[in-house]
Amino acid sequence: QAAAGGGRAAHRACGVHNVCRLLTRRAHGFYARDAGVAHRKNLELLRKIMCQESTKFKNVWTTHSASPIAYERGRIYMDNYQCCISSIAQQPRILYQKSKCAKSEKIEDALLLECPLGEMLPSPSDYKASLIVLTVQNWLLRLSADSGEVLEKVYLAGSCCKFFRYLSWDTPQEVMIVKSAQNKLPAAARQAGIQQTVLFYLAVFQVLPLSFIGMLEINKKIFGNSVTDVAVSNGILIVMYSMGLVRLYNFKAILEQFMEQPFDLGQEFNWNGQVGVVGKYPFGLPCNIKITDTPPLLFEASSLENAFQIGGYPWHYIITPNKKKHKGVFHICSLKDNALAKNGIQDMKCCSLEPDWIYFHPDMSGRIIHVGPNLIKVLKLKEVKNHADQMEIAEDFTIVANRENCVNNTVTVTASGRVVKKRFTSLDDDPEQETFKIVDYEDELDLLSTVAVTQIGADGRAHLDFHCNEHGILLKSIPLKESWDVTYSHEVYFDKDLVLHIEQKPNRRFSCYVYQMVCDTAKDDD
């Protein structure tokens, strides 16, 4: 067998001499012994089964709550993350239920943490999924995703900050950012002439194992008086200003340049006259990154409402010109030289209450998705013919809502007997016409999902459609049984063989509807 295997390997090597071709063929699963091939084949089978006409999605579970409902990777969280329900089983079942927590223990934000592949971790619990949560009292907790047991706890706020509120990824599943609320002085302090120069605090952690990288402050003296918000993503510090300006800085370079002293969690320290243990109450974390000078600027752009996105290949960015009259107009420009791409101004000219939206496709193809009330355009970047250094925006495919012509004619007769015809056009997002509300991408099945809604009177009907991500062809349509009110807030998750709809009604009333795939050749009204 070894000889035969060696012979096959030699034959394979002889057949493909180009490294790029070899890697491409391996990624497509040409070689049965490569890791991940079985998983890819299973997902291909699941996609084919799901898109069969005989396959249905059945509403298997519904619940209602007075507190927000969240969903993460097959787990439904309720009662401020005190109750966790598995949605993977045939009937959703409770994984754990904790007693009601005090207001001082309320969870402000959460991130799901999954084990990285191919790494040795210090604790057996690190190999299982866990939930990182941030409490109102500035505790950062790592909980077991299956039992809710506290695995690790870190106290964040020392003397510098009292209001950490937000969790986000810098690098997904690797580097985490904990951000404070914006610091604001009490009215009495402002009247007394006291000025607040520190706007935000950012604490940076490496995850699995959980380790402290550093804490820094965003200060008016360094970044300016008109800063409204900050974010960190993929090694870039993004600073937003009240006049629509967005500035980008190299976050990794900032950490390296302005780090005063590194600290480890659990380490005893003497810092600015304080003696304590890093990450323990009451000292928390030291602010050990002091930005003393404005960092080198990587890029800046001005955009309406600070809307700014980077993506595509070669790198491009999307902005809206910084004037209210341009709302709904998107410019796609080269990051290299700010040149507007050919056909780079995208304007659907929608007459609607809700604006259209645009973003880079999450499938890493470099394409762009532009969603309007009745039209979804998937765009692509390509070289202009005979101009290799210039890019143009071309249409890859479109998805059109199934609606009738919404132009109506009314006839009136004046007092003199003259017939007057009035012609008017309803809004593009008229609820009585099918309108796109949600567009998402299922990466494991490579499907583009859309939710379209039609509301007549008080009764709204929605359906979830699956489209081929490559060509936009409609593969499957799933009607949602519950009524859909367009004035409520809605979230729809499509996760392999599961569809989950979370609805927020007025007065903080929440509902969750779970659908699961059912394969039955017989006709079933359910």
UniProtKB/TrEMBL annotation:
Record-annotated membrane-spanning stretches: 198-218, 230-249
GO biological process entries: protein ubiquitination
**What are the alphabetically sorted keywords of the record?**
Membrane, Transmembrane, Transmembrane helix
Can you name this protein? DCA17 factor
Gene (UniProt): Dcaf17
Query: What are the GO cellular component annotations?
Result: Cul4-RING E3 ubiquitin ligase complex
What Pfam families does the database record attribute to this sequence? DCAF17 (PF15802)
Q: Which InterPro entries match?
A: DCAF17
